[in-house]
Structure formats: C-alpha cells, structure tokens
Amino acid sequence: MYAVAIPFYGRLADLHGARRFFLFGQAVFAIGSLLCAIAPSFQLLLVARVIQASGGAAVPGLGIALAARAFPPHQRGTVLGTVTSVLGVAAAVGPTLGGVMADRFGWHAVFALGILAGFILPASWLLLPRDSGRDGDRLDFWGGLFLAGAISGGLLALTEGSRAGWSTPRPLIAAAFGVAGLVALVVRQRTAESPFIPRELLGNRRYVALVAASFGASTAMMGTLIGMPLLLATVNGHTPTEVGLALLPNAAIFALLGVLVGRLVDRAGALRPVRIGLIIMILAAIGLSWGAGSSIWTMAAILSLLGLGSSLVNTPLGTAVSLVVPPRLLASGQSMNTMLFFLGGSLGATAATAIVGARVGALDAVNPLHTGAAIGFSDAFLLSVLPLVIALALSGAIPGPQPRPGGPQGRPDSTPEPSATSPEPTESRTRRTSAEAVGAGRD
Question: Residue 201: inside a domain, yes or no?
Fold first, then answer.
C-alpha cells in the first residue's frame, strides 16, 4: 500500500499543494493505528494495516518535498540530514521500545504508538509551510491505476513465489497481473496528454540514474535489516527485546551523523560521501555474510558498519535528487524516488527470506569465508553486494556542490544554473532575454 499510494500523493501535491495531503495522511495514519490496536482478528488487522499505510504513505515523499521546497539548494543537505537524524532517532527507539512492549503487553500495544500521530496534528497544521499547486494539468487516474497494478502484481508475485513456490498458481497469476499493468502503463505514458509519471522526469537521465542507485542501496539495506532479526531470533534464539537492542547501534549512527553528513554535502557535494558510503556498505555486507550465526554483539558491530555506510548514502542521494528535479515537479520526483526506495526494500526483504528458505539443509555457504550454521543467511547477505555495486556504478550522475549566495561564483542568489535536465522557467528566461535586449540596445 505504501508503494502504491506514495506516487499518488506526490502527483496530487504537485497539482494541488503538498501541505493538505500531508495533514490528511497524518490523520488517516492515526485512525489506522487505532484500528490496528483494537483489531480482534488477523483479517481485521490486515484491513487496518491497509488503512494505516494509505495514510502513512503521505509522510515520506511529501515530508521531504516540503522540507526541500522551504530551503534553497545550498542548504538542502543540512535540512535533509536533519530529517535523517530524526528518522534515526525513531529507528533507534522504535525496535527497542516495540520489543519491550510486545514482550510485556502483546503486539496490540505496539500499534497504539501510531495513534500519537493524531495528537500532533494541530502542530503540523500550524507549522507546515503553506503551498499551492499549479493550474492546467489534471491527475492521470488511469496511469496511476496501471502503475498500482504493476507494483502490486510484482510484489505479490515475489511474496507468493518465495512462500509457496513459483510453480503454484498464485505467483504466476500475480506476475501476469503485474506485467499487464506495466504494459498498460507504458502505453498510457505514450498516449496521455499529461501522463501520471511526468515525461520530464523520465527524460532526465541524472534523475533516472539517481533513483536507480537509491533503489539498489535500499534493496541491500532492507534485505539485511529484515534478515538480521530473523537470524538472531531463529538461529541465535534471542528475544524481541534483545533483537531490538542489537539493532539500536545501527539506528543510533543515523541519528548522530545525519546533520553532519548533510552539512558535508552542502559544502563539498554528494558524490564523495555516496561513493565512500557504498564501499563501506559492500564491506559490511561481506562481513555479515562471513559472521552470520556468530555472537549477537559481533553481528551488531558489523551491522553498525553497514549503518555508517548507509548514513553516508541516504542523505546525499536524497539531496541530489532534489537538485536535479525542476521545483514544480519536486513532490512527484521525491515521491517516485521514495516509492522505488520502498520497492527496493520489499525486493530485498523478499529475496533475503527466499534465499534463507531455499538454502535450508545446505552444507556449504557460497561465501568461502563462512563456516558453521546460518548458511542461508550468509548467502542472503552476500547477495546484497550486487545491488550495491550497481549503485556505485550509477553514482557518477550525482551533481556537484551548489553555489552559495555571494560565493566565488559571484552569483547573487541561490538558484542553480539551468541545465539540460532542469529547464529554465519561462519567467526567468523572459527576464534574462529582456535584460540581454536592453544591453544590446545600449551597445
């Protein structure tokens, strides 16, 4: 539901403003959380989770878009780094607190925490910057519906294929549904006057490369974050509270480094942090594959190294995406990037669990450095190296540092120079042409 709803929110925000949809999503998330907390059965819990996700999907893409729109390009690294730090605090507190509450009060209590989103709704109403969309374009509902079909069919095929086997009817039907949605989306993109995915985004090679790199990094990171609790619970035999404590250092690194990495991006650009971070993540993935099944604190230490690399990747990549997208398409661009981030996470989680299941009973791991139990987990962690290598190859699309007002470039404002990937607005082009004409008249 997250992956389906995120691009809808982004497109609606570009057309009608992001603030109202962020507030709407926050309210729906709180209602869904309440329904989850009181759900008496799995079926009703599943319905409540769909409602919860349909609201929560507004927060990631639109939150970043609102933050990016509120500040000039040369400050976006610090702004998005601050957002990353807050997410890091939440990720540090969430698993630990959730484990303790699940142990003491049952799983219903964990969902009750989401109700707090409703209590801070008045603060969001007062503090979020007001914005408006643009007239002329309409939401391409059919294109969005086809995109939803492609996403849901693909995810369902992956999930059912790993759970029940690829020869069973469900994954085959889901895969056919996903392919049909994808074909219909491609046709719609070519024929619609104003397609659901703006053509300007698809024609922006830098943007496409950056969101693909984000997809790869997410695939590796989420596959590991899903595989690690399973490993510690099933192989090492630890409780939910102990598992939450083992994940705590990884999330704490996000919280501590977010702002620092953001400031580094504003000063020196995003390319170097991303490449260093991806290399660290590759080394950490190899280390997790080697140490799978060892002591909980050994695994927590290696996972912290992965968190260090990821903190050097996520904020710079998100900042780079905001710089290569025209301001009028910022919500759509960020939402598509967030959608692919979640899809990458879903793919990574599904691939990790599928490999673990397929390698039950195996005698030797693919990684020659690994010995002992947890062979399936070792192979799953090793596979995460592949998307990281692809992301590293795509990192050359990252733009350089943005000029500051009154900096050595001598430019009086913080607006970046137009490029082939970010067309110059008509208003600015008109002013520039008029100024050139006046200068020519003087000459």
Answer: yes
Beta carbons within 8 Å of 257's beta carbon, 6+ residues apart? 85, 88, 308, 311, 312
Determine contact, residues 338/215, Cβ cutoff 8 Å: no
Q: What CATH number does residue 340 fall under? A: 1.20.1250.20
pTM of the shown model? 0.75
What's the pLDDT tens digit per position in 15-71?
A: 888 888 999 999 999 999 999 999 989 999 999 999 999 999 888 778 878 887 788
Q: How many domains is the chain partitioned into structurally?
A: 2
C-beta atoms surrounding 151 within 10 Å: 24
Residue span of the structural domain in which 150 resides: 140-195
Helix and strand numbers (H, E) in the chain are 19, 0
Is residue 373 a part of any domain in this protein? Answer: yes
DSSP, residue by residue, 229-251: HHHHHHTS---HHHHHHHHHHHH
**Together in a domain, 183 and 256:** no
3-state secondary structure of 192: coil
Assign 3-class secondary structure to 33-88.
Answer: HHHHHHCCCHHHHHHHHHHHHHHHCHHHHHHHHHHHHCCCHHHHHHHHHHHHHHHH
Both 156 and 299 in a single domain? no
Taking a C-beta distance cutoff of 8 angstroms, is the pair 79, 48 a contact?
Answer: no
DSSP 401-442: PPPPTTSTT--SSSPPPPBTTBPPPHHHHHHHHHHHHHHHHH
Q: 324 near 214, Cβ under 8 Å?
A: no
CA distance 332 to 241: 38
